[in-house]
Amino acid sequence: MGFEKEREREDTPLLGNGRPLSSQFKTFANVFIAIVGAGVLGLPYAFKRTGWLMGLLILFTVAALINHCMMLLVYIRRKLGVSSIGSFGDLGFAVSGPLGRFVVDILIILSQAGFCVGYLIFIGTTLANLFHNPTMTSSLTLSLRHLMGVSPKSLYIWGCFPFQLGLNSIKTLTHLAPLSIFADVVDLGAMAVVIVEDVKITVEKSPQVVAFGGISVFFYGMGVALYAYEVVGMVLPLETEMKEKEKFGKVLALSMLFITVMYGSFGVLGYMAFGDETMDIITANLGAGVVSSIVQLGLCINLFFTFPIMMNPVFEIMERRFWSGMYCAWLRWVLVLAVTLVALLVPNFADFMSLVGSSVCCALGFVLPAYFHLMVFKNEMGWKQWALDVGIVLLGIILAVSGTWSSLSEILS
């Protein structure tokens, strides 16, 4: 159960080459790729719920706290001086033994699988909106829906299943890395198109918007923001790869600031363009034009190919624990089936984002880093640092309980 050499690290930076030679710009790119994903598409809807000003305050607060907690993990590894600490799970083992690694592993499984559930919900919902036209739907599709008693969204999710079994049977993360870079390029292109459309619509219509949505939606907004920023598990391999490690904190902070400004602009512009009509996936507001359809199809394609990349940490942990670290195709297929079944049961993309963010992402992003830091530095810290660590742990627990309750209430209502 020690720091044995594993056949494939679950958290290797996708732009890395296995040597600590990354420049500052390359580290910036790695951070960007690790953070930016489908979560940004739910931000305008979250801002509709929280209000645009409250949404911005939540976004910047979460970014600052996540940045602080990521650096706590870096400080812990430097303090312990154990070269074999290469991942969050390794750090959990070094601080709290087998229980520490077990807790981190469980949370990583839940968070990564949760992201993949969100991907399938997005794909199913988007394709259903694009192609579910009664005058265009084929008689075969209508017959299948009648016989199976499922919605168009469910049909598209099931349609992904056999192809995902094949993609998730690929053994090494290296072969999948280019797909992640492609996915981020598509994400940026989609964001650019959406922002341009948002500005045009805002100028033409200027719908009514609110600045504060009330305290009742605060925890919901925190959950969505945490989902959009979940990158804590990547910080240690990112720092390992950087050549000038003393500058890692500065590069990480600048990366987080840049991404937060981009997220905030996207969320505010999306909400201000559509107001109360803002949908849980902002691309659904773009209508049925050619450009809109291309953007939505492109996002579906990139999430389809990102799915096996995000599932890779789940496979690595499960195979390490239950199959002696060896490749196991049937175990992977069972996990893909489980994720698919959960996606079929969840009705709303943004609500599910909030649920994942409020529960597992909150524990990974806030509770564990502050707790591990407290355990390692408890004899060296002053009362201010003690208070800060304890405060973050308590904040994380409160947010996890309240946010999970709020999100489940929305999903089940």
TrEMBL record:
<keyword id="KW-1133">Transmembrane helix</keyword>
<dbReference type="GO" id="GO:0031090">
    <property type="term" value="C:organelle membrane"/>
</dbReference>
<feature type="domain" description="Amino acid transporter transmembrane">
    <location>
        <begin position="23"/>
        <end position="407"/>
    </location>
</feature>
<feature type="transmembrane region" description="Helical">
    <location>
        <begin position="28"/>
        <end position="47"/>
    </location>
</feature>
<feature type="transmembrane region" description="Helical">
    <location>
        <begin position="102"/>
        <end position="122"/>
    </location>
</feature>
<dbReference type="GO" id="GO:0006865">
    <property type="term" value="P:amino acid transport"/>
</dbReference>
<keyword id="KW-0029">Amino-acid transport</keyword>
<feature type="transmembrane region" description="Helical">
    <location>
        <begin position="173"/>
        <end position="196"/>
    </location>
</feature>
<feature type="transmembrane region" description="Helical">
    <location>
        <begin position="327"/>
        <end position="346"/>
    </location>
</feature>
<feature type="transmembrane region" description="Helical">
    <location>
        <begin position="352"/>
        <end position="374"/>
    </location>
</feature>
<keyword id="KW-0812">Transmembrane</keyword>
<feature type="transmembrane region" description="Helical">
    <location>
        <begin position="386"/>
        <end position="408"/>
    </location>
</feature>
<dbReference type="InterPro" id="IPR013057">
    <property type="entry name" value="AA_transpt_TM"/>
</dbReference>
<protein>
    <submittedName>
        <fullName>Amino acid transporter AVT3B</fullName>
    </submittedName>
</protein>
<keyword id="KW-0472">Membrane</keyword>
<feature type="transmembrane region" description="Helical">
    <location>
        <begin position="251"/>
        <end position="274"/>
    </location>
</feature>
<keyword id="KW-0813">Transport</keyword>
<feature type="transmembrane region" description="Helical">
    <location>
        <begin position="294"/>
        <end position="315"/>
    </location>
</feature>
<dbReference type="Pfam" id="PF01490">
    <property type="entry name" value="Aa_trans"/>
</dbReference>
<feature type="transmembrane region" description="Helical">
    <location>
        <begin position="53"/>
        <end position="76"/>
    </location>
</feature>
<feature type="transmembrane region" description="Helical">
    <location>
        <begin position="208"/>
        <end position="230"/>
    </location>
</feature>
